[in-house]
Design brief:
The chain is mainly beta. The protein is 7% helix and 40% strand. It contains two helices and 38 strands.
Length: 455
């Protein structure tokens, strides 16, 4: 879905109402509401900038609207009537771009508020310094996240602050640590937690995985498979996959377990995105598992479980044995048709073999993926992006070469291309030869024994 009218930035955060309408906060012309009927319509309402909103029962609360540098703290919005509930003239008070829903009457923004039916109290000094004289790492907040152990994670342009809401103690993580807990960039945009308890940290220079069991941080960048190093917003889908919006599209990150490397599947404007660039911490997942990411030119919504089920066709483009091409050895392979070959019988001195292959799927051919392995030699799949596999100096024995393909949504075809390979040992290195060697040795012993007895 794209924007209607002139928004400065479409959103900093999404909010869902109980009527399944989506409220979108913007940095230009107020609240935008989209009623999700079919594809919906965007209707803009003029007004002051609303930076961040969340739902508390039937009342929507703003954690920081701005009007001429004057902060308006809480708005009660109901049935079209806008009631000012709280206001301060502190023009230098820090502002929040994001907030988490209230828990136990605590409302977390850059400042801490307690909310009741008729009372609204502010404790602005709590996050500025804790009892150990530890300061939160910055006054500008990009996003706030509550982890499964009830800690509050605050992302800022200067790093990451972790707050214990029971004690209000603060722990800061940034590049200055220069140890195993140093993050890749101080400019932290968003935070989320996967099903294994790992904390994922979106920064302007890479995606950080914080393993809290090992107390280590691993950084993933473009070289690892991400579309960009600039990570903007994060969500975990119902299957446990991590989704990241970036400055060059969206990435689905498959997390199989806490030890294996993730698999990256990337999407761009050719897949229907509103644009390549997205806005920091502007995302949500609704009660039906649909994910929303906002960008300067609109927002995208999608259901992660709905994928392209059509699978690619894997074909062989060539086979070579000991540097001889298919045309030179087709009689050896037993077929004139390359893709009809099911078995290859080779001699001991024909143990260098190469396969060329491709994946045919026309929806997004640039996103097709290939993997291969040689059973009998290895158990792990290899990346087949070069579309060639070469094996040299194979020992005599039986092998199975397997290649498989996936479509643009990362769906792998269970129907693999398989070729059985049998490499015979040398005539002097097989069981027949071993039997002859044994008989010859026994005969020699018998002759020697007989000669000894004759003397």
């Amino acid at each position: 879905m794209t924007k209607v009218g002139d928004f400065a930035d479409l959103s900093k955060e999404f909010v869902l109402s109980k009527e399944t309408s989506i409220f979108i906060t913007s940095m230009g012309e107020g609240i935008t509401q989209s009623n999700m009927v079919d594809y919906g319509m965007l209707q803009s309402s003029d007004g002051d900038t609303l930076w961040s909103m969340n739902e508390l029962d039937s009342t929507f609360h703003s954690s920081g609207t701005a009007k001429n540098r004057q902060k308006i703290g809480l708005l009660k919005l109901k049935k079209g009537r806008y009631k000012l509930f709280y206001k301060t003239d502190d023009s230098h008070s820090v502002e929040s771009f994001n907030a988490v829903p209230p828990k136990d009457s605590l409302y977390w923004g850059i400042e801490v508020y307690t909310i009741s039916d008729n009372e609204f109290n502010e404790y602005s000094s709590i996050l500025n310094k804790d009892k150990n004289n530890s300061y939160m790492i910055g006054n500008v907040v990009h996003s706030i996240f509550e982890s499964s152990d009830k800690l509050i994670w605050v992302s800022t342009p200067l790093g990451l602050s972790i707050i214990d809401p029971k004690t209000l103690e603060i722990k800061n993580i940034n590049m200055a640590l220069k140890d195993h807990l140093s993050i890749s960039s101080d400019n932290v945009e968003d935070i989320c937690e996967d099903n294994f308890g790992n904390i994922w940290i979106a920064t302007q220079d890479g995606l950080n995985k914080y393993n809290r069991i090992k107390n280590t941080i691993k950084v993933y960048r473009e070289k690892d498979g991400l579309p960009s190093n600039g990570i903007k917003a994060l969500q975990i889908d119902d299957d446990g996959n991590l989704w990241a919006s970036t400055i060059k599209g969206i990435s689905k990150i498959e997390i199989s377990d806490s030890s294996q490397s993730p698999i990256f599947i990337n999407y761009d404007v050719r897949d229907g995105l509103q644009g390549y660039t997205f806005i920091g911490s502007a995302s949500l997942i609704d009660s039906e598992g649909k994910i929303y990411f906002a960008g300067p030119d609109g927002f995208n919504s999608f259901s992660p479980g709905i994928t392209d089920k059509s699978l690619p066709n894997v074909v062989l483009n060539g086979i070579s044995v000991s540097n001889k091409s298919f045309d030179e050895i087709d009689d050896l392979l037993g077929s004139k048709e390359l893709n009809n070959i099911e078995k290859i019988d080779l001699s001991y001195n024909q143990n260098d073999i190469s396969f060329e292959f491709a994946s045919i799927h026309f929806a997004r051919p640039d996103k097709n993926r290939l993997q291969y392995k040689l059973e009998g030699l290895e158990d792990e799949w290899h990346d087949g992006s070069r579309q060639i596999a070469t094996y040299a100096n194979l020992d005599p024995g039986e092998y199975v070469f397997i290649v498989r393909g996936s479509n643009g949504d990362g769906i792998w075809d269970d129907k693999t291309k398989r070729i059985n390979i049998n490499i015979s040992p040398a005539w002097y290195n097989n069981w027949t030869a071993y039997s002859l060697y044994a008989l010859f040795f026994i005969g020699m012993l018998y002759s020697i024994r007989k000669f000894e007895m004759g003397r």
